[in-house]
Amino acid sequence: MNNKTLKRDKLKVIYDILKIIREHNNSIRATPLLRFSNLSFRSFSEYESEIIQKEFIKIIEDKKKKKYYTLTSKGFEYLDKYKLIQRFIEDFDL
Amino acid sequence: MKPYMLKPYMPAPNRFIPYCGALEILFLVLIVLSSLYIYSKTKKIYELSEHKGIKYFRYGFMCFAISHSFLILHSMLKNMIFKTRILENFFLFEVYSWIYLTGILFLISSMFSDEINEKYIYFGSLFIFILGIFFESKFFMIIYSTILIIILGIISIIKLYKDKKKHFSLIYIIYILVFSSWLVSFVGRIFTNIYVRGNIINDILRSLIFLYMAYLVNKKLK
After folding, report:
1. What is the reported pTM?
2. Phi first, then psi: what are they for A60, rounded to 5°?
3. Which residues of chain B lie closer than 8 angstroms to A88, CB-CB?
4. Chain A touched by B162 (CB under 8 Å)
5. Domains, chain B, ranges and CATH?
6. In a domain, A19, yes or no
7. Helices (H), chain A
8. CATH number for A23
9. Does residue A49 fall inside a structural domain?
10. Chain B contact for A50, CB < 8 A?
């Protein structure tokens, strides 16, 4: 697998993580998210910090102090524009 | 004594030449606007993806917008405002060439974004610029363009062979851009009296390419 494929995969992995959160009523805990995303703990941690830093998701706490991931407006925007970005990259050979 | 007897080597006056300055500026403005449009249109997808290829693609068009702005200034100083050739020597053409080549390097790098670091692009273009200043500028441009055409030609053939179903590739656009400049420079070197016409044809061709690119980007990002 070359670097270009890995790069595309990275965009796809972020898309998949965000999609899982959206499909769970925009609120999911870390353990099921890790399980559904089919990633190793290490990879998941890397992607998690990246998408938090990019402000695609934020962590909220309920009354019992349990942590949940939820999408931000930027995260929703990424989901909307993902196919467009992917097509743009493919069409222009980027 | 008739004037042609004094300077028999001078080419016959060309009625087309006085209009070239205004036409040139018009087409250059089109190129600047198209490049800025592409740069702004791709802003959102870059902010979301932070994809290196998109970043280089945008930087390439920003370089084209800046370089052609310098060319507009160069053309205005030459043809419109002062009608003198003194200001031509203020490195405006060299600065244009340098930034334009950086743009070409960015566009090529956008296709190999994972392998090429941004620093190498700046370093490479600076190196070419220094060589261009060190040697005679236009002659160096022809040599550089010829090498670039050969490399791009090889990549294009490989691309054409690999993706037979795909009719569009950024590499073909880059190839046309470099090839048209090369042709004009080459022709201009040999036949100086048709250089002006060649240059205006190059500007028209280039503006059409940039408009087409702006159209494509707009279509893909609708």
Report:
1. 0.80
2. -120, 155
3. 42, 45, 54, 220-221
4. no
5. 17-220 (1.20.1070)
6. yes
7. 3-23, 30-36, 41-53, 73-91
8. 1.10.10.10
9. yes
10. no
Structural tokens at position A53:
């830093």
User: A70: which strand partners?
Assistant: A58
Question: What Å distances lie between residue B83 and B19, B75, B87, CA to CA?
Answer: 13, 10, 9
- Please say whether the beta carbons of B31 and B70 come within 8 A: no
Q: Taking CB atoms and an 8 Å limit, are B111 and A94 in contact across chains?
A: yes
User: Between chains, do B168 and A3 touch, taking CB under 8 Å as contact?
Assistant: no
Cβ–Cβ under 8 Å, residues B75 and B84: no
Which residues constitute the domain of residue A30?
10-91
CA atoms of B72 and B55, how far apart (whole Å): 26
Q: Tokens for A22?
A: 């959206």
Nearest CA in chain B to A87: B220
Q: What is the CA radius of gyration of chain B?
A: 19
Is B31 in contact with B207 (CB distance < 8 Å)?
yes
Which pair of structure tokens corresponds to residue A43? 């990879």
Give me A61's structure tokens. Answer: 């706490």
Flag whether residue B160 sits within 8 Å of chain A, measured between CB atoms: no
CA distance B183 to chain A (A): 26
Chosen from A85, A87, A90 to mutate, greatest number of chain B CBs within 10 A: A85
Say yes or no: A89 contacts chain B, CB-CB below 8 A: yes
- Mean pLDDT (10-residue bins), chain B, 222 residues: 44 49 84 95 92 91 92 75 55 77 86 77 78 68 78 81 71 81 68 60 84 91 83
The structural domain count of chain A equals 1
